[in-house]
Amino acid sequence: MLEYPPHSQKNKIITIKKKPFIAFFCTYTPQEIILASGFRPQRVIPLGFDPSLANTFLDSNFCPFVRSILSWAIKQNQDNAMVPFILVNSCDGMRRLYDVMSYYFRDSFIYFLDLPRKRDRASEELFKSYLYDLKRSLEDFTGREITDEALQEAIRESNNFRTIFMRLDEMRKKQNINLSYYDFFKLIQDGTEGIKKIYGLYPNDFLIYDSHLITNQNQLGEKKKTLRILLTGSVLDNIEIIKIIEEYGGIIELADHCNGWRYYINKIDETNPNKIDAIVSFYLHKISCPRMMESVTREERLLEIITDRKIDGVIFYTQKFCDVSLFQIPLLREKIKSLGVLSLCLEGEFSDNISGQVRTRIQAFMEAIEFG
Prior knowledge:
Blueprint: E1 21-24, H1 31-36, E2 40-43, H2 64-78, E3 85-88, H3 92-104, E4 110-113, H4 121-142, H5 148-173, H6 181-193, H7 196-199, H8 201-208, E5 227-232, H9 240-247, E6 250-256, H10 261-264, H11 275-285, H12 296-308, E7 313-319, H13 323-326, H14 329-338, E8 342-348, H15 356-371
Parallel strand pairs: 1-2, 1-3, 3-4, 5-6, 5-7, 7-8
Protein backbone atom coordinates (compact mmCIF):
# COMPACT_ATOMS: atom_id res chain seq x y z
CA MET A 1 0.00 0.00 0.00
CA LEU A 2 2.66 2.47 1.05
CA GLU A 3 6.32 2.93 0.34
CA TYR A 4 8.05 4.24 3.41
CA PRO A 5 9.82 6.57 3.13
CA PRO A 6 8.13 7.92 -0.01
CA HIS A 7 9.81 6.93 -3.25
CA SER A 8 10.50 10.51 -4.37
CA GLN A 9 12.87 11.00 -1.42
CA LYS A 10 14.85 7.81 -1.93
CA ASN A 11 17.49 9.32 -4.18
CA LYS A 12 17.68 12.66 -2.41
CA ILE A 13 20.73 13.40 -0.31
CA ILE A 14 20.01 15.92 2.43
CA THR A 15 23.06 17.29 4.19
CA ILE A 16 22.40 18.90 7.54
CA LYS A 17 24.41 19.37 10.68
CA LYS A 18 22.50 17.32 13.20
CA LYS A 19 21.67 19.36 16.27
CA PRO A 20 22.08 17.90 19.74
CA PHE A 21 18.71 16.93 21.18
CA ILE A 22 16.80 17.48 24.38
CA ALA A 23 14.63 14.53 25.33
CA PHE A 24 11.03 15.13 26.34
CA PHE A 25 8.21 12.75 27.18
CA CYS A 26 4.99 14.78 27.40
CA THR A 27 2.92 16.54 24.75
CA TYR A 28 2.72 19.63 26.98
CA THR A 29 6.46 20.24 26.61
CA PRO A 30 6.89 23.53 24.65
CA GLN A 31 9.00 22.18 21.81
CA GLU A 32 9.19 25.61 20.18
CA ILE A 33 11.31 26.97 23.04
CA ILE A 34 13.66 23.99 22.72
CA LEU A 35 13.95 24.57 18.96
CA ALA A 36 14.65 28.28 19.48
CA SER A 37 17.44 27.41 21.91
CA GLY A 38 19.35 25.64 19.15
CA PHE A 39 18.50 22.13 20.31
CA ARG A 40 16.35 19.53 18.62
CA PRO A 41 13.32 18.43 20.67
CA GLN A 42 13.07 14.65 20.56
CA ARG A 43 10.09 12.90 22.06
CA VAL A 44 11.12 9.57 23.53
CA ILE A 45 8.70 6.64 23.55
CA PRO A 46 10.99 4.12 25.30
CA LEU A 47 9.40 0.95 23.96
CA GLY A 48 11.63 -2.07 24.41
CA PHE A 49 13.26 -0.87 27.63
CA ASP A 50 12.20 -3.27 30.37
CA PRO A 51 10.24 -1.30 33.01
CA SER A 52 11.34 -3.74 35.70
CA LEU A 53 14.91 -2.40 35.40
CA ALA A 54 13.65 0.71 37.20
CA ASN A 55 12.08 -1.19 40.09
CA THR A 56 15.14 -0.54 42.27
CA PHE A 57 14.31 3.16 42.16
CA LEU A 58 10.53 3.26 41.62
CA ASP A 59 7.74 1.10 42.97
CA SER A 60 6.63 -1.68 40.61
CA ASN A 61 3.03 -0.41 40.65
CA PHE A 62 4.09 2.84 38.99
CA CYS A 63 3.00 3.46 35.41
CA PRO A 64 5.17 1.34 33.05
CA PHE A 65 5.70 4.43 30.87
CA VAL A 66 7.42 6.23 33.76
CA ARG A 67 9.53 3.19 34.65
CA SER A 68 10.46 2.63 30.99
CA ILE A 69 11.68 6.24 30.77
CA LEU A 70 13.97 5.63 33.75
CA SER A 71 15.22 2.36 32.21
CA TRP A 72 15.99 4.25 28.98
CA ALA A 73 17.75 7.04 30.90
CA ILE A 74 19.86 4.52 32.84
CA LYS A 75 20.99 2.97 29.55
CA GLN A 76 21.85 6.41 28.13
CA ASN A 77 23.83 7.28 31.24
CA GLN A 78 25.77 4.00 31.03
CA ASP A 79 26.95 5.14 27.60
CA ASN A 80 28.01 8.49 29.13
CA ALA A 81 25.57 10.30 26.86
CA MET A 82 24.51 12.77 29.57
CA VAL A 83 21.32 13.48 27.65
CA PRO A 84 19.47 16.65 28.70
CA PHE A 85 15.85 16.07 29.77
CA ILE A 86 12.69 18.08 30.26
CA LEU A 87 10.00 16.47 32.42
CA VAL A 88 6.47 17.81 32.87
CA ASN A 89 4.48 17.67 36.10
CA SER A 90 1.74 15.60 34.48
CA CYS A 91 1.21 13.07 37.29
CA ASP A 92 2.63 11.80 40.55
CA GLY A 93 4.69 9.22 38.66
CA MET A 94 6.50 11.95 36.73
CA ARG A 95 7.17 13.87 39.95
CA ARG A 96 8.80 10.80 41.50
CA LEU A 97 10.73 10.20 38.26
CA TYR A 98 12.17 13.71 38.51
CA ASP A 99 13.21 13.06 42.12
CA VAL A 100 15.15 9.98 41.06
CA MET A 101 16.70 11.44 37.90
CA SER A 102 17.76 14.72 39.53
CA TYR A 103 19.56 12.72 42.22
CA TYR A 104 21.28 10.09 40.09
CA PHE A 105 21.91 12.10 36.89
CA ARG A 106 23.33 15.24 38.47
CA ASP A 107 25.67 15.96 35.56
CA SER A 108 22.79 16.18 33.06
CA PHE A 109 20.48 19.12 32.40
CA ILE A 110 17.17 18.04 33.93
CA TYR A 111 14.33 20.55 34.04
CA PHE A 112 10.98 19.95 35.72
CA LEU A 113 8.20 22.02 34.12
CA ASP A 114 5.12 22.63 36.23
CA LEU A 115 1.76 22.69 34.46
CA PRO A 116 -1.53 24.20 35.70
CA ARG A 117 -4.61 21.98 35.67
CA LYS A 118 -6.97 24.81 34.74
CA ARG A 119 -7.16 27.04 31.67
CA ASP A 120 -8.37 30.33 33.16
CA ARG A 121 -6.56 33.65 33.06
CA ALA A 122 -4.70 33.05 36.33
CA SER A 123 -3.45 29.70 35.02
CA GLU A 124 -2.23 31.34 31.81
CA GLU A 125 -0.21 33.89 33.77
CA LEU A 126 1.20 31.16 35.99
CA PHE A 127 2.18 28.98 33.03
CA LYS A 128 3.74 32.00 31.33
CA SER A 129 6.01 32.51 34.36
CA TYR A 130 7.00 28.82 34.17
CA LEU A 131 7.88 29.13 30.47
CA TYR A 132 9.97 32.25 31.05
CA ASP A 133 11.87 30.33 33.72
CA LEU A 134 12.39 27.45 31.27
CA LYS A 135 13.62 29.94 28.68
CA ARG A 136 16.16 31.41 31.13
CA SER A 137 17.32 27.95 32.17
CA LEU A 138 17.88 26.91 28.55
CA GLU A 139 19.75 30.15 27.87
CA ASP A 140 22.02 29.48 30.85
CA PHE A 141 22.52 25.87 29.71
CA THR A 142 23.29 26.71 26.08
CA GLY A 143 24.94 30.09 26.56
CA ARG A 144 22.68 31.38 23.81
CA GLU A 145 19.89 33.95 23.93
CA ILE A 146 16.46 32.77 22.80
CA THR A 147 15.24 35.65 20.64
CA ASP A 148 11.74 36.47 19.42
CA GLU A 149 12.98 35.82 15.89
CA ALA A 150 14.16 32.33 16.83
CA LEU A 151 10.83 31.64 18.58
CA GLN A 152 8.91 32.85 15.52
CA GLU A 153 10.88 30.53 13.24
CA ALA A 154 10.39 27.62 15.65
CA ILE A 155 6.64 28.28 15.80
CA ARG A 156 6.42 28.41 12.00
CA GLU A 157 8.39 25.17 11.67
CA SER A 158 6.17 23.36 14.20
CA ASN A 159 2.98 24.70 12.63
CA ASN A 160 4.05 23.56 9.18
CA PHE A 161 4.73 20.10 10.57
CA ARG A 162 1.28 19.92 12.20
CA THR A 163 -0.43 21.27 9.08
CA ILE A 164 0.91 18.40 6.98
CA PHE A 165 -0.67 15.85 9.30
CA MET A 166 -3.95 17.74 9.56
CA ARG A 167 -4.17 17.68 5.76
CA LEU A 168 -3.26 14.00 5.58
CA ASP A 169 -5.86 13.21 8.22
CA GLU A 170 -8.50 15.13 6.29
CA MET A 171 -7.65 13.24 3.11
CA ARG A 172 -7.91 9.94 4.97
CA LYS A 173 -11.29 10.95 6.36
CA LYS A 174 -12.54 11.68 2.84
CA GLN A 175 -11.07 8.36 1.67
CA ASN A 176 -9.13 9.92 -1.18
CA ILE A 177 -5.69 8.76 -0.10
CA ASN A 178 -4.53 5.17 0.16
CA LEU A 179 -2.81 5.34 3.55
CA SER A 180 -3.43 2.98 6.46
CA TYR A 181 -3.66 4.46 9.94
CA TYR A 182 -0.71 2.32 11.00
CA ASP A 183 1.50 4.02 8.42
CA PHE A 184 -0.03 7.40 9.22
CA PHE A 185 0.70 7.04 12.94
CA LYS A 186 4.23 5.84 12.22
CA LEU A 187 4.84 9.01 10.20
CA ILE A 188 3.73 11.10 13.18
CA GLN A 189 5.82 9.12 15.64
CA ASP A 190 8.96 9.24 13.49
CA GLY A 191 8.47 12.96 12.95
CA THR A 192 8.37 13.74 16.67
CA GLU A 193 11.66 11.90 17.04
CA GLY A 194 13.38 13.56 14.08
CA ILE A 195 14.23 16.95 12.64
CA LYS A 196 10.89 18.52 11.78
CA LYS A 197 12.12 20.88 9.07
CA ILE A 198 13.78 18.06 7.15
CA TYR A 199 11.46 15.23 8.10
CA GLY A 200 8.46 17.29 6.99
CA LEU A 201 9.56 16.73 3.39
CA TYR A 202 8.75 13.04 3.68
CA PRO A 203 5.06 13.08 4.65
CA ASN A 204 4.61 16.15 2.44
CA ASP A 205 5.49 13.93 -0.52
CA PHE A 206 2.16 12.17 -0.02
CA LEU A 207 0.43 15.49 -0.62
CA ILE A 208 2.51 16.72 -3.54
CA TYR A 209 4.55 14.08 -5.37
CA ASP A 210 3.03 10.68 -4.67
CA SER A 211 0.01 10.99 -6.94
CA HIS A 212 -0.19 7.21 -7.26
CA LEU A 213 -1.47 7.09 -3.68
CA ILE A 214 -4.45 9.30 -4.51
CA THR A 215 -7.56 7.37 -5.45
CA ASN A 216 -10.57 8.44 -7.44
CA GLN A 217 -13.63 7.70 -5.35
CA ASN A 218 -15.75 7.27 -8.48
CA GLN A 219 -13.56 4.31 -9.49
CA LEU A 220 -13.44 2.60 -6.10
CA GLY A 221 -16.49 0.41 -6.69
CA GLU A 222 -18.04 -1.58 -3.90
CA LYS A 223 -15.76 -1.79 -0.88
CA LYS A 224 -15.64 -4.45 1.78
CA LYS A 225 -17.45 -3.39 4.92
CA THR A 226 -15.04 -2.20 7.60
CA LEU A 227 -15.68 -1.33 11.23
CA ARG A 228 -14.91 2.25 12.16
CA ILE A 229 -12.92 2.35 15.40
CA LEU A 230 -12.01 5.24 17.67
CA LEU A 231 -8.83 4.52 19.64
CA THR A 232 -8.37 6.68 22.72
CA GLY A 233 -6.22 6.82 25.84
CA SER A 234 -2.93 8.17 27.17
CA VAL A 235 0.33 7.57 25.31
CA LEU A 236 0.20 4.89 22.59
CA ASP A 237 3.33 2.86 23.20
CA ASN A 238 3.18 -0.03 20.73
CA ILE A 239 1.58 0.95 17.43
CA GLU A 240 1.31 -2.74 16.52
CA ILE A 241 -2.04 -2.52 18.31
CA ILE A 242 -3.26 -0.49 15.31
CA LYS A 243 -2.11 -3.18 12.88
CA ILE A 244 -3.95 -5.87 14.87
CA ILE A 245 -7.19 -3.85 14.79
CA GLU A 246 -6.80 -3.42 11.03
CA GLU A 247 -6.09 -7.14 10.59
CA TYR A 248 -9.38 -8.01 12.30
CA GLY A 249 -11.43 -5.82 9.98
CA GLY A 250 -11.29 -2.50 11.76
CA ILE A 251 -10.27 0.86 10.40
CA ILE A 252 -8.95 3.44 12.85
CA GLU A 253 -10.81 6.67 12.22
CA LEU A 254 -8.81 8.52 14.84
CA ALA A 255 -6.26 7.76 17.56
CA ASP A 256 -6.92 10.19 20.39
CA HIS A 257 -3.55 9.89 22.10
CA CYS A 258 -1.00 12.48 23.18
CA ASN A 259 1.37 11.21 20.49
CA GLY A 260 -1.45 10.98 17.93
CA TRP A 261 -4.41 13.22 17.16
CA ARG A 262 -3.94 15.49 20.18
CA TYR A 263 -0.41 16.27 19.00
CA TYR A 264 -1.22 17.81 15.62
CA ILE A 265 -4.84 18.98 15.74
CA ASN A 266 -4.16 22.63 16.74
CA LYS A 267 -1.67 25.30 15.73
CA ILE A 268 0.05 28.24 17.43
CA ASP A 269 -1.06 31.77 16.53
CA GLU A 270 1.85 33.12 14.47
CA THR A 271 0.41 36.65 14.44
CA ASN A 272 0.64 37.13 18.21
CA PRO A 273 3.51 39.60 18.81
CA ASN A 274 4.27 38.05 22.20
CA LYS A 275 5.64 34.63 21.29
CA ILE A 276 5.55 33.21 24.82
CA ASP A 277 1.89 34.30 25.13
CA ALA A 278 1.13 32.47 21.89
CA ILE A 279 2.85 29.31 23.14
CA VAL A 280 1.01 29.50 26.48
CA SER A 281 -2.36 29.85 24.75
CA PHE A 282 -1.63 26.91 22.44
CA TYR A 283 -0.57 24.43 25.08
CA LEU A 284 -3.21 25.30 27.67
CA HIS A 285 -6.12 25.48 25.23
CA LYS A 286 -5.37 22.57 22.91
CA ILE A 287 -7.37 19.34 23.17
CA SER A 288 -6.55 18.38 26.74
CA CYS A 289 -5.38 15.13 28.24
CA PRO A 290 -7.22 13.54 31.20
CA ARG A 291 -4.97 15.18 33.81
CA MET A 292 -6.51 18.59 33.04
CA MET A 293 -9.61 19.67 34.94
CA GLU A 294 -11.27 20.86 31.73
CA SER A 295 -11.00 17.42 30.14
CA VAL A 296 -14.82 17.47 29.79
CA THR A 297 -14.18 19.48 26.61
CA ARG A 298 -12.21 16.54 25.23
CA GLU A 299 -15.01 14.15 26.20
CA GLU A 300 -17.58 16.27 24.37
CA ARG A 301 -15.31 16.41 21.32
CA LEU A 302 -14.93 12.62 21.33
CA LEU A 303 -18.70 12.14 21.54
CA GLU A 304 -19.11 14.49 18.55
CA ILE A 305 -16.52 12.48 16.60
CA ILE A 306 -18.33 9.23 17.42
CA THR A 307 -21.53 10.69 15.96
CA ASP A 308 -20.06 12.60 13.02
CA ARG A 309 -17.75 9.82 11.80
CA LYS A 310 -20.29 7.07 12.51
CA ILE A 311 -17.94 5.20 14.84
CA ASP A 312 -18.85 1.52 15.32
CA GLY A 313 -16.70 0.87 18.39
CA VAL A 314 -14.37 2.62 20.84
CA ILE A 315 -11.20 1.03 22.20
CA PHE A 316 -9.67 2.57 25.31
CA TYR A 317 -5.94 1.86 25.32
CA THR A 318 -4.10 3.36 28.26
CA GLN A 319 -1.11 2.46 30.37
CA LYS A 320 -1.46 0.23 33.40
CA PHE A 321 -1.59 2.25 36.65
CA CYS A 322 -2.26 5.50 34.72
CA ASP A 323 -4.74 6.74 37.32
CA VAL A 324 -5.65 10.04 35.65
CA SER A 325 -6.79 8.16 32.53
CA LEU A 326 -8.36 5.15 34.24
CA PHE A 327 -10.50 7.28 36.57
CA GLN A 328 -12.12 8.96 33.58
CA ILE A 329 -12.99 5.81 31.65
CA PRO A 330 -16.11 4.50 33.52
CA LEU A 331 -18.11 7.71 33.10
CA LEU A 332 -17.03 8.13 29.48
CA ARG A 333 -17.95 4.51 28.70
CA GLU A 334 -21.45 5.15 30.03
CA LYS A 335 -21.83 8.18 27.75
CA ILE A 336 -20.61 6.15 24.78
CA LYS A 337 -23.00 3.32 25.66
CA SER A 338 -25.90 5.79 25.62
CA LEU A 339 -25.06 6.41 21.94
CA GLY A 340 -25.47 2.69 21.24
CA VAL A 341 -21.73 2.20 20.66
CA LEU A 342 -19.73 -0.66 22.18
CA SER A 343 -16.39 -0.06 23.89
CA LEU A 344 -13.41 -2.13 25.00
CA CYS A 345 -10.81 -1.25 27.65
CA LEU A 346 -7.21 -2.43 27.27
CA GLU A 347 -4.16 -1.70 29.41
CA GLY A 348 -0.67 -1.36 27.98
CA GLU A 349 2.50 -2.44 29.76
CA PHE A 350 5.16 -0.92 27.47
CA SER A 351 6.01 -4.28 26.01
CA ASP A 352 7.42 -5.02 22.56
CA ASN A 353 4.93 -7.86 22.18
CA ILE A 354 1.15 -7.77 22.04
CA SER A 355 -0.10 -10.67 24.15
CA GLY A 356 -2.36 -13.39 22.78
CA GLN A 357 -4.97 -12.37 25.33
CA VAL A 358 -5.12 -8.83 23.92
CA ARG A 359 -5.37 -10.17 20.36
CA THR A 360 -8.23 -12.46 21.39
CA ARG A 361 -10.08 -9.63 23.14
CA ILE A 362 -9.76 -7.39 20.08
CA GLN A 363 -10.97 -10.17 17.78
CA ALA A 364 -13.95 -10.89 20.06
CA PHE A 365 -14.77 -7.17 20.25
CA MET A 366 -14.78 -6.85 16.47
CA GLU A 367 -17.07 -9.88 16.16
CA ALA A 368 -19.40 -8.44 18.80
CA ILE A 369 -19.72 -5.23 16.78
CA GLU A 370 -20.17 -7.01 13.46
CA PHE A 371 -22.66 -9.65 14.58
CA GLY A 372 -24.19 -8.00 17.64
